[in-house]
Amino acid sequence: MATNSSKAATQHRTDYSRCIVHLTRDDRKSFTNGASARENLLQILKNKSIWAVKPHCIYNEKISKFTEKQQAGYRVACFTEVPLSQLHLLVQEIPGRKIKLEPYGVVFTKDFIASKGGQPAIYINSYDGNIRVREAVDHLFSVATDSDEHKILRRIVPFMNAMHEQYDFTWEREWRTTKSLDFKLGDLVCIILPEKGEDDIKKKALQAGIAVISPGWTYEQIITELADQQRKTKNTFGSAKSANNKVEK
Questions:
Q1: Could you tell me how far CA 1 lies from the centroid of its own chain?
Q2: Rounded to an integer, what is the distance from CA 66 to the centroid of its chain?
Q3: How buried is residue 243: exposed, middle or buried, by Cβ count under 10 Å (0-12/13-18/19+)?
Q4: What whole-number distance in Å separates Cα of residue 15 and Cα of residue 197?
Q5: What pLDDT was estimated at residue 33?
Q6: Rg (CA), the chain
Q7: Each residue of 101-143: pLDDT tens digit?
Q8: Residue 73 near residue 141, CB atoms below 8 Å
Q9: pLDDT tens readout for residues 174-195
Q10: d(CA 38, CA 30)
Q11: Four-point Cα dihedral 120, 118, 7, 104, nearest 10
């Protein structure tokens, strides 16, 4: 999907990732039916879907007062385009951050996410009282939600993020989809697991021909490990058995 010009411009850049990542977390304190990060990853692989569960944008407080039906249009699934060799920086302890991501997740190509309607988050700068853009965005939100006449404008709202002295997560390099992301196992570039442990999941992934990487690995480690895993699964790739295999609990 990427154009020839974009491929040429990015092929030698180490700060640019061709992949999009979804990391899971322990959400048992956030949802009555929440689960550990491990269990959430397994559920994603079993259902082959990443759900858009709730709104997550600059107008969360206002949207929370909408009806459940109205809120549905603002729910998102969240991802990041942080380079794979930098994933460990997202799963470490980060002061002031309420959500703690863990070293469990799935990786897709950026082209795949774009084909599913994925969009980079839009960060609205309000630093040092610079509110010209924020005022314009506030007006857009007011017009979009005032009546159904301009409801088409609501499509952009789920992608808007705050950016000011008290709240700035531009470093997450976030992407979002406004619908649950359904995929096939063949759409996965790889899955993310802790370097140590989780041998049962790694074994099933190997049997299904799905590569595994861990946060903190350098690109050289990732390449070496993926090549080794490919050798181990050479008798599984392309077979009917692997195509139908599932990673489950």
A1: 19
A2: 25
A3: middle
A4: 30
A5: 83
A6: 20
A7: 999 999 999 999 999 999 999 999 999 999 999 999 999 999 9
A8: no
A9: 999 999 999 999 999 999 999 9
A10: 16
A11: 90
Look up residue 216 and give its two tokens. 């903190």
Q: How many C-alpha atoms does 56 have within 13 Å on its Cβ side?
A: 16
3-state helix/strand/coil string of the chain: CCCHHHHHHHCCCCCCCCEEEEEEECCCCCCCCCCCHHHHHHHHHHHCEECCCEECCCCHHHHCCCCHHHHHHHEEEEEECCCHHHCHHHHCCCCCCCCCEEEEEEEEEHHHHHHCCCEECEEEECHHHCCHHHHHHHHHHHHHHHCHHHHHHHHHHHHEEEEECCEECHHHCEEEECCCEECCHHHCCEEECCCCCCHHHHHHHHHHCCCEECCCCCHHHHHHHHHHHHHHCCCCCCCHHHHHCCCCC
User: Any idea which residue has 């991501």 for tokens?
Assistant: 101
| Residue 183: alpha-carbon gap to chain centroid | 13
Query: Residue-wise over 146-179: b if at least 16 C-beta within 10 A, else e?
Result: eeeeeeeebebbbbbbbbbeeeeeeebbbbbbbe
Query: Residue holding tokens 């039916």?
Result: 33
Going from the C-alpha of 112 to that of each of 18, 123, 128, 142, the distances in angstroms are: 10, 23, 38, 33
The distance from CA 233 to its chain's CA centroid, rounded to whole angstroms, is 27
In sequence order, what are the residues at sequence separation of 6 or more whose Cβ sits closer than 8 angstroms to the Cβ of residue 3? none
